[in-house]
Design a protein that fits this description.
2 copies of one chain form a homodimer.
Chain A (H helix, E strand, L loop, with lengths): L2 H18 L4 H6 L5 H20 L9 H19 L1 H6 L5 H12 L15 H29 L19 H29 L4 H12 L17 H14 L3 H8 L5 H4 L1 H24 L4 H16 L14 H13 L12 H19 L8 E2 L2 E2 L2 H27 L4 H12 L20 H15 L3 H4 L10
Antiparallel strand pairs in A: 1-2
Helix pairs in contact in A: 1-3, 1-4, 4-6, 4-7, 6-7, 6-19, 7-8, 7-9, 8-9, 8-10, 8-11, 9-10, 10-14, 13-14, 13-15, 14-15, 17-18, 17-19, 18-19
């Protein structure tokens, strides 16, 4: 492990973070809040630490996969540590555990909050909180489409060829080029959503914050009642539309914008993504249309919003689904494991992996009937290579092991079964709101300190495709 | 599909079933009950149907895997159908759904009951109910050690070479020979347990019924309070010991009896099985020793009993674990998925598969660090072949798909989340008692009719390694 290179790059990223911390300052000043002081102090501390880390280390030739894994995981940790400073310094979240949890929840685009009264926060901090989502989403897009495929993680290896940007063997130039293109798309979509939300009645501040939460599939809102506070069908449908876009592979947006109008519907994963939304809408709607909403339009608005919000792992809320039937809650719980498409900002196992797992089971059944037949798993016309198949299956098993371990720990810390299942699924899948005592109208404030650290670790693992984090615990990883 | 051969063999098995139905008659007469009439009538009906099926069909050369799959699944269905007749004819379980559920629960060695007052049943029916377990266990041993490995299902392919009996290419002579040896072991262990239970104070009737429940890892008791009714540490420990034996690969018993004294501890799966028991005992004991039992001996007795009873998928009870901490309940819930060893009468995914899944995840992590290394998964010194690995992974994914679907259906039928999770896990894993409204002191009487059929189907799928049943739904299966 070349620690020098790793710390060098982390230092560079911290400088970027310190600049980002200044962005909320104008909002703080405009609304006459005092929190700009905390933001500027935090920014200063981060800048100094970043520059020191950058200056006292040296970039050592090229990066190998090992350093790539270390930078990704440590990057999210460092961001969550320094990103929590504004909350601590301002005194609005005095506990380090709580501030770290909230910031990790932001950067991992989870959206689980320990705040009992969100609206009590001053505007600078609220903006910073939402901005952590947007920055996290930016990181994830580059990670999933440009970095992880080359490290052999993330299921996107399948689409190496489909990623926009120049095809090159060296990691760095390719990442830079791909990142620029994808960030352009991300920025464009964010701008359009902000404008639409303003046209629908939000002020600039709220529109920006909710755009950050949407495009990153994060879910932090500026309101205690989340998106439901606006009570506007127009806003709901705008956000539904952009949650779906955010849960879609960003390279499809790129191709669509370049004039390939059929890019979406030619894509197997996107079609399966739409199918899942349709099935979930039917299953949940069978309950909500009958038992909760007499007006079918309202039924569609509320049901579709919740289905899309959970499936894309955003976690915005317009209805308290804990009043819906157990079957509906269970459908939403299942969606938490599926998540968005690969190459989107969504979390979870990803739609393409679920699709491949289903096809794998079918191929095994066929193989039992025809023991000597070769039954490859295909996605579209591409055969899934053995190592990718192994990686997907390994992730699925590991995800389940971590889920079960997480639920046990949370139950041992005193959570009831529903809440433990809900909290672990919602954090590991990067959704935010879960079930039971961490449901859509609750928050994570009451979770014991140890539990908050466990959940923060689950957010990180879920966000980084699990393997990226787990690999750091392998002794051979650290060998020279 | 050669239907003639299939029906021919099913007819033969029905004749065997009709003979088995006469076995409880002496107990009915001895205790002066009237239920021997129902048993004899049911036996007569089964005999006539069996003989007709046997006479009007012809065995067509050799059996192919297709016919093997059909016979196994249809065999369990036919047994559950005819086996339910004594309950219906006697009038003690008037509903066909209930009687079928109870009998399927018996033959699949699940032990889930719809009876609200078990002790109200006459002795002949009680004996028949427990005997269905023992017959089901007999079927499973042969199935898992002699038939399924040759059909490419069940994870025991790994141990083809380890199965006792002559090595031959033809299926039939090998099955016959292996079956004889294994049934000898099964009979011997059953006889020893019966004698020990009688020495510990049970009468012959209770000793036999509880032996049937133990050796088949079934769990039907003759008492409403299950094994707890005897309130005897000696009985508890005898049953713990034999539950462990029943959850162990029967070919190990065979080798041990032949003088290979280290057979058990040389076996990787058995060591992992013991490790799981140890870990579960620690995790659950951390709660029960501290919060529920002031006497450490009683704590060990009750905790170990429940851990072994659930892990081996027996489902006998001596304590109401629903009063234990949520973390303890969750540990037991997790054990439901693991189950016994391959080649035992236990259900669940099987210990060896869980072991291989863990090793598979490790191999995937190593492969990420060394992308060009070949990292085979080993069990002991044997490399797990690719097709077996695929089969195990496929089963795991399929098991989860079926679990999720089952929970949704049960929730849609009105069960709360805990009960739906518990009922589906307990039936799919062939345990019996679950959580919530189907916990250890409850029963399945209140489940809606549709739900009972779904759970009965889950028992069958769980018992027959899922693929064996699912394959019948493949259209190509039925093609000429």
């Amino acid at each position: 492990m070349r620690f020098g290179s790793v710390i060098h790059i982390l230092g560079f990223l911290m400088v970027f973070l310190s600049v980002a911390m200044v962005i909320p300052v104008p909002f703080s000043l405009y609304y006459g809040d005092q929190d700009y002081l905390a933001l500027l102090s935090a920014s200063g501390i981060t800048l100094v630490c970043g520059i020191l880390a950058f200056l006292f280390t040296r970039f050592d030739q090229e990066l190998r996969p090992k350093e790539g894994f270390a930078i990704v995981t440590l990057g999210w940790l460092v961001f969550s540590f320094f990103g929590s400073l504004p909350f601590i310094i301002s005194g609005y979240i005095p506990s380090f555990t709580d501030a770290f949890f909230e910031t990790m929840s932001g950067f991992t685009t989870t959206g689980a909050t320990i705040l009992t009264d969100i609206e009590a926060l001053p505007h600078g901090l609220l903006f910073w909180r939402s901005l952590t989502h947007w920055i996290g989403g930016m990181g994830i897009i580059v990670l999933s489409l440009a970095i992880l495929p080359f490290l052999g993680v993330g299921g996107m290896q399948l689409f190496k060829a489909e990623v926009p940007g120049p095809v090159a063997d060296k990691l760095t130039p390719r990442i830079t080029e791909t990142a620029k293109i994808l960030w352009g798309v991300y920025l464009l979509l964010s701008a359009v959503e902000t404008i639409l939300l303003m046209l629908a009645g939000m002020n600039l501040f709220d529109a920006l914050c909710h755009t950050f939460g949407t495009m990153a599939t994060g879910g932090f809102s500026t309101r205690n009642a989340s998106v439901g506070a606006y009570n506007s069908a127009l806003i709901d449908f705008i956000i539904i539309f952009f949650m779906i876009l955010a849960g879609t592979n960003f390279s499809l947006h790129f191709r669509f914008l370049r004039g390939d109008w059929r890019a979406y519907f030619r894509n197997v994963e996107f079609r399966f993504f739409m199918t899942i939304i349709g099935i979930a809408l039917l299953l949940v709607g069978a309950d909500t249309f009958r038992n909760h909403y007499s007006d079918p339009f309202e039924g569609l608005q509320k049901t579709l919003f919740q289905v899309v919000s959970i499936l894309t792992t955003t976690g915005f809320g317009t209805a308290d689904y804990e009043h819906w039937a157990f079957s509906s809650q269970f459908v939403l719980f299942t969606l938490m494991f599926i998540g968005g498409c690969a190459g989107s900002t969504g979390g979870g196992l990803k739609v393409v992996r679920i699709f491949i797992l289903f096809k794998f089971v079918f191929s095994e059944i066929v193989r039992l009937l025809h023991p000597h037949a070769v039954v490859p798993v295909r996605i579209g016309r591409t055969v899934v290579p053995r190592d990718v198949m192994g990686n997907i299956l390994g992730l699925f098993v590991l995800f389940m092991i971590i889920f079960v371990t997480g639920v046990f720990v949370m139950a041992a810390l005193g959570l009831d079964i529903d809440s433990a299942f809900g909290a672990v699924a919602a954090c590991l899948g990067n959704i935010g709101p879960g079930l039971g005592s961490v449901g859509p109208t609750d928050n994570y404030a009451h979770i014991p300190t140890a539990g908050k650290w466990v959940l923060a670790a689950l957010m990180l693992m879920g966000r980084l495709e699990v393997f990226t984090v787990i690999i750091l615990f392998s002794p051979t990883f650290w060998k020279k």
